[in-house]
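Good morning C.,

I know you're traveling, so I'll keep this short. The sequence:
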Amino acid sequence: MRMLPRHRAGSTLAIRNKHAVAAKPNEIKRGPACATARAYDQAGEAYGAYADGRAAHYCSTSRFAHADNIVWDSLRKSIDELSEAGITTLRILDAGCGPGTWVRRVAAYARRMHLSVDATGFDIAEGQLEIARRHMDGAIGASGNTRVRFLAHNLADPLPWSNGAFHLVLCNYIVLNHLDRSALPGAIGELCRVANHRVIATLRAVASPVTACIIGTEHVSQYHHDRHNGELRLVLKDGSEHVLTLNLYSAERLKALFGTRATIVDLRAVDLFLSRFALDENWTAQLASALPGRSQVLRSLRVAEEQLCREPAWLDHGTHILLVARPRAHIVRGISGRHSLIKLARRRGHPEIV
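The tokens, ready to paste straight into the viewer:
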């Protein structure tokens, strides 16, 4: 992989590829956000295959399976809490939903729990939203008791939902990293504002390994991440060029930002070791699978991660930081626990966008 030369601060690099998605009247039209949207749209189905694996309904087949399972455990625990509290319809928002993988996972699990689902996913990439709608049409969650909407929205802008409109709000992996630094506090505030039970967010850690965001690094021919200016520039092996906003954050910074609007329930490093040894058919599969004693080493690394993942000195060294927060603003005064959740579940009037 050849590194790109450093460009002047403030310079931009447009996508130069005849297959780039053309602008639409309702497309996100905001400089860096638009460039990021085009990059994900150009990646198309390849992004989902890279990020989620071929069997995206499950968390066990991709190169990020270890991380996915950690995030899923937090999400499943929150759904179980709501079910035990008497919720019958789960309202969930996936901010930066991409191809809709996590919405489909939640819908499938909720059906097994005999819960109805009212789910909304939004993204800045119209092409990824089209993939999400297409995949959802034939998914297990597309049934009479499951209502799913995917819409275009920029997380840098205020969210068009009322306070506490959703039980769970997700913002997985690199979505918040793509925002300008100045937009991050407001976006976190909005995520906490529209949630009434949990916000579950994962972000790239400040000491995380190299990422190309839209596709595996094996497809990259030139790479430069300007951490000072938060700009990632790529040239892929197909000749396309991309520029994306990519700001990395420390656990302390995230804890401070979320802590103004919510109580931190969990804060941990995700994937301290495993991705460095993960099998990838395009990259390391043959070499890694041949290592003697590899399965025992991986088990030991999982144990080591669980021992270290919440230690302050290790938090910034995972691939991602997982933060689980309980919003403060929507607790009904004088009502707590099970009764609070039931009262919130019976609320009406949250907006409906198809």
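Safe travels,
E.
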